[in-house]
Structure prediction request, 307 residues.
Amino acid sequence: MSSGQTSANSSGDRMTAPSTLHDAIDRYLDHLRVERGLAHNTLCAYGADLQRLLEHLTPDDGTVPLAHIELADLSAFLVARLDEGLSLRSVARHAVSVRRLFDFLHREGWVEPNPAADLDVPRVRPSLPVSLAEDDVARLLAAPDEHTPEGIRDRAMLETLYATGMRVSELVGLPAAGLRLDIGLVRVFGKGGKERLVPLGEPAVLAIERWLIDGRTLMLDAARRASHPALFLSRRGRPLTRQGFWKNLKKYALASGVRMDVSPHKLRHAFATHLLAHGADLRALQIMLGHSDLSTTQIYTHVSQAR
Prediction:
């Protein structure tokens, strides 16, 4: 649907249709706040659910045209939430939020047809995640140019992601104070504010040490900042964003000749699958991944067997 379309509001004025999902969510939340008078906590809940949808659909440039969104995209979002360990009840709440958003957009005449009209909560666990081969991971880890501060940082980030299986949001938000390099551990703050201690492994420890010595200080100096609590910083002295890391990862995948469509979540899958293939304990893996439900972790046993 083109951004030139219009819709009549309750006052009879003509409103320009939102062209992107980000704009559409803003319009919908304004509608809930002004016309429906929903409570602040309810608005925050809707906003959080829809922000996750936005992040799922826009990993690169932060925008997605409304006309490009289909039922398959919305269903894949719900499956991804199951894959991350959410309960069916939580995923059902996300489905309701998404359906109500698109019902509103459809009533306003801003989407046609309504891609969420037949959206339902998946009743089965997601299909087996696709995992990178160990050779692919090795090429990916070696791709950054470690003659630059950015390359040193990116090598450390890749090593940390593969060594711990943490989520990309946990990686970019990792505080430097959470490191215990002397004993090879990192404190990870996951969903719901839950924290866990995860072993790093020697390659990740060495990569982080080099970043702290040869890269991070230069980034802070370039930004004229004395310090920052985040471990991984940009040249502006601020934490690298999820989208920024995603772009870098895709660049390194292309440079290293990895044919698979690589994402941070696929490195998380690789961590889990490779650990199990080398004899790791399933419950220990559950703790490292931050899964609340062991059945979510068990899917990797099937991946390992399939390989």
